[in-house]
Amino acid sequence: MANEPLQLNLGSLRSAMSLTMHTHHASRIWHGRAPTEGRPGIIGLNGYLSVMNKMKRGAEQDDPYSDWWMLRIEDKLADTKTRLQTLREQVEQALSDVPPALSLGENMNVQPVKLPLFVNAQLGFMAVYLLADYDDLARKLILAHHTALIDRSTLERWLNDGAHALRSLFALAQQYRYSGTTRDDFAAKSAAARAAQEKFGELPQDVLEGTRRSRFAPPIARRGNRPEVPSADASEPGLTDGAADTTAQDEDAKA
Q1: Which sequence ranges form a coiled-coil region, renumbered to this chain (predicted)?
Q2: At 78, phi and psi to the nearest 5?
Q3: Tens place of pLDDT for every residue, the chain, 255 residues?
Q4: How far apart are CA 80 and CA 129, in angstroms?
Q5: Burial of 199 (0-12, 13-18, 19+ CB in 10 A)
Q6: Could you give the count of Cα atoms lying within 13 Å of 121 in the half-sphere of its Cβ?
């Protein structure tokens, strides 16, 4: 009995996370906009996170199109980060015109909103960081306008430029669809693979072969041990108020 291995029934790792926002501008990007008559809806960060979770599960199931989408989103995230950084440099330049005798404190909301985060995909976290950056940028822009360092039109233009960069990222993610195929289907030139090519287009050869994947791509699950197939409609806008509609699971620990 003493030599029997000890069986440990360990659960998943969890970490409590939340995002604090100080501006209405960032809050609107979080929630997006529900569709109304004559006006389409706008996907928010919570809808984007839902898509990223499905995209990650698709890549885990060896769907080459999910891998291709992860690469596209990763590139778009880098582009969005660059755009926000350019705006940050512009507002920092404006704030540098404050006379040395004047001290400006942080522009903080006396009653910020704290939202719980349940994020399952690394590309989701990267967008959360960008929204936090935009919230900080908006606070600095509002301060610069309040202290007469920029005018109203400049304030609105820079705020809109930052919001557009984030919404463009979310809108791209909203186009993702799970193909329902695997690389084995393409190797066998199956009917499913031909149908996927017709519907979603040709893939770069290195993506199809699996030699080029996102740096955050999950390990491919072994056949017979694959998770539940993601919903075919991965464009859910997720425009409801509150926390992101995702499930916090320690999927990486399975690798």
Answers
A1: 70-97
A2: -65, -40
A3: 556 666 666 655 555 677 788 898 998 998 888 778 778 788 899 899 999 999 999 999 999 999 999 999 999 999 999 999 999 999 999 988 877 777 666 666 656 777 777 788 999 999 999 999 999 999 999 999 998 999 999 999 999 999 999 999 999 999 999 999 999 999 999 999 999 999 999 999 999 999 999 999 999 986 655 555 565 444 443 333 334 443 333 444 343
A4: 11
A5: exposed
A6: 29
Lookup: tokens for 139: 């606070």
Q: What is the pTM of this model?
A: 0.79
DSSP per-residue string spanning 92-159? HHHHTTS-TT--------SS-EEEEE----HHHHHHHHHHHHHHHHHHHHHHHHHTTSS-HHHHHHHH
Distances (CA, A) of 61 to 66, 111, 182, 210, 249: 9, 44, 7, 12, 17
Q: Which two tokens stand for residue 245?
A: 């509609």
Asked if residue 59 lies in contact with residue 230, where contact means CB atoms within 8 angstroms, the answer is: no
DSSP string, 175-234: T-------HHHHHTT-HHHHHHHHHH----HHHHHTSS--TTPPPPPPTT---PPPPS--
- Which position has the token pair 């919903």? 231
State the helix-helix crossing angle for 45-60 and 24-31, rounded to 10 degrees: 40
CA-based nearest residue to 216, from 56, 39, 26: 56
Residues 6+ away with beta carbon under 8 Å from 194: none
Supply 147's token pair.
Answer: 């202290």
Angle subtended by helix axes 45-60 and 152-174, to nearest 10: 30
